[in-house]
Every structure is written in C-alpha cells, then in structure tokens.
Amino acid sequence: MLVEGKTVELKREYVDDIKKTAAAFANCDGGTIYIGIDDDGSVCGVPDADATMLRATNAIRDAIRPDVMMFVDCHYTDMDGKAVVTVSVQRGTARPYYLQGKGIRPEGVYVRQGASTVPASDAAILSMIRETSGDSYEAARSINQQLTFDYCSAFFKKRGLELGAGQMRTLRLIGEDETYTNLAFLLSEQCAHTIKLAVFEGSKKTVFKDRTELSGSLLEQLEAAFDYIDRYNRTRAEFQGLDRLESRDYPAAAVREALLNAVVHRDYAFSGSTLISIFDDRIEFVSIGGLVKGMSLDDIMLGVSVLRNQYLANVFYRLRLIEAYGTGILKINESYSDSAVKPSIEATSNAFKIILPNLNYVKESGKTGETVRPLTSGAKKKERAEAVVSLCRNNGFVARKDVEQALHISQATAILLLREMVADGLLVKKGTAKNLRYYLAEV
User: Which residues lie across from 427 on neighbouring strands?
Assistant: First the structure.
C-alpha cells in the first residue's frame, strides 16, 4: 500500500493543486503524483484515464515556468482492476520552478516538506537560483518577472538601436529558459538598486546642502546622476590680458568615466546604494564591491580590466556609453594630466572609491584639501623623486611597495609618481605585475 511522503503524493481525483505539487517535486528530489488513490492508500481509480492525463499535463505545461515538461512523465496503470494516473516528476535543472501567475516569490515557488507541499522561503529561492545559475548575478533569473522597459527602450531608440525580444535574448536580458535575468531587472523600471547623491558644505560630511536618491532603470539613474553633478560643476572664469579663460571644477570626461565605473563595475549582489558625495574640494564616487579577485590597484592603474558584470558592460558598449574595456581610469588620469592635483583610488575588499579633486579649489582658496591625493606640486614632486632616486642607488632598484613605505604615501600616489618618473626619463621599469621593478635610467 502506498503512503504519502516527500516523493509520493496521493490524490483521490484530479484537483488544480496538482501543479503546485509538480513544481515542488521539480524543485526538490522529484516524486510521483498518483491520481485515483485515496489518502489512506486505498485505490478508487479514475473514471476516464485519458481525460485525467490530458488535464494534468495541460495544467503542468501551462502553469509552471520554466518549462518543466521534459522532466515529467504521465501515464496510467491498472491497480486492483482500476485505472490510476501517475505523474512522475524528476528534479529539474532550471530551478526554481514557479507558477506563472505568481512569479519567483514564496507564493509562486513550492517545495516538499515531508508529505506536504509548502511555499519556499526567500532563502531557499535564492539558494536554488545560485545553484542553477552559477556565481554570476546578472545571468541569474530575476526574482521579479513583472518587468517593464519603457525608459530602456526609449534610450535604445534614441541611439538608433532596437530592443525587441530577439535583441533581449542576444544581450542576455532573457535567459535560455525564456525568463528575465537580473540584467533585465537592472535595466527595468523595477530596479531596486539606487544611486544616492549628496552635496556637503566644506570638505566634511557634517552639513548637507542638498541630497537626492535616484531609482528606476540604471540608464535613467546614469543620466539623472550626470545632470545632477553637472549642476554643481561650476565654471570659473579668469582673464589673461584680453582673453577670457574658463575652466570647470571637474573635467566632464573624468566625471563621466567615474560615474560609468561606479555603475558598470559595482557588485549588484548586495543591496546597498552607490554613493556620490560632492564637497567643496572634491567628488567621491563609492560603489559596492572591491577589486575583482586576482586584481590589484596596480593592474587597474595600468588599464587592466576584468569585468564583474560582463553582460551589463556589453549593453553599455552597444549603447556607445563606453568605448573599450579598461580605459576609464586612464581617461580620468589624462583629464588631470596638466593639473597640480590628481585623482586617486581607494579599494577595500567590499568597496571601491574614486576621488576627483576640484581643479578650481586650489586657485580660489590656496588650499589643496586634506583628502585630495596625491599632492603633485613641483616642489613636492621633486622632493619625492629625489627620495626614489636615493632608494634606487642604495638598493639597486625599487618596487612600488618600497616607495609607499619609504615616502609614507598611498598605493595610487606611488603608482602615479613612478609613472611620472618613467615618463621624465629618470627611471626604467622591468618585469610585470608582482615582479615589476624600477631602475635608474642610464645617463
């Protein structure tokens, strides 16, 4: 006699809830639904086996997403002289399976708990998504499948591109199982990740002058964030003879690249906001997610790029928002090539910060600001260069870490200092990555 359990479900007759049980079996260890057997195990049979089989298979096919039918076998068998329909469901490979009308949330995703079919917890749903989708956040199925793309479609159209179903599959907004991916979620109006911008008085986070939080499609947030920063990117005018010379606080190209970097490279597996803070002397862009495993700040400064969100980057490339991978940091540095103050980068295991100094702040106030790094005035640069030359003479060569420790400067400052000394013909570099060494140039 059959007994209900984790892999066995008994039904006296066909009921609509069979689709929930089928989804639960596909999400767990598989199982069999017997239609025509009472809860106590007694065989009652079904009056029309063919009609019952048709109703069961149609319900499962129409109600469950992704398509689970390749893991379903439906037939009838004779038990005690009566027709019993058996629906066998194997564990699926595209979990979580969910009811189309409910979506990938507890009321739509079911699992087996003993002999019962119950809604899955949020943690169980995320675990199934990670298990079947791998480590890539953007390639995983979006929990929210009720997505709209009005802004995204308009943005594509403005740039002469279409965003139909075919393009969405090519760009990985729609996965192989015909469901929306997290990439689609990021570009939709329903995107839950935000950008927070704040303007502070002075150079510390004590007095707010203005603040805002941007939501919606990442493309909408990107445009709105650039416009917001642009409103606070003042133009300073001065006269040289009869000529009027104008300069903005921040190079537009540097702002653009720093903003794109914060949006494209952040880790969206975490729910915190991207933070942009505007001070009198600088702008800070802070995004969640440190350096990609295996990368160092040295690699980043040299233009090496390993993409955390390769499909999102590809979308931005198609939209001509980025020209090539790995050029953003180099463009930011080039924007400040003739300036006494330079941008800097800081990274921890979970965050990445780009600091753009205000080009006009020094001219107006005569100050450099405590957080503007590195200080590369002529005298300071000469002092540091002489110290590096002395290190080379004593040791035969220097590595970047030697310079950091001896001069008590940051990694980014050391990289820029060594790069400038190579460009000035004072040093030559040999080796790569961890074996990179700097030697005095032969005179």
Answer: 440
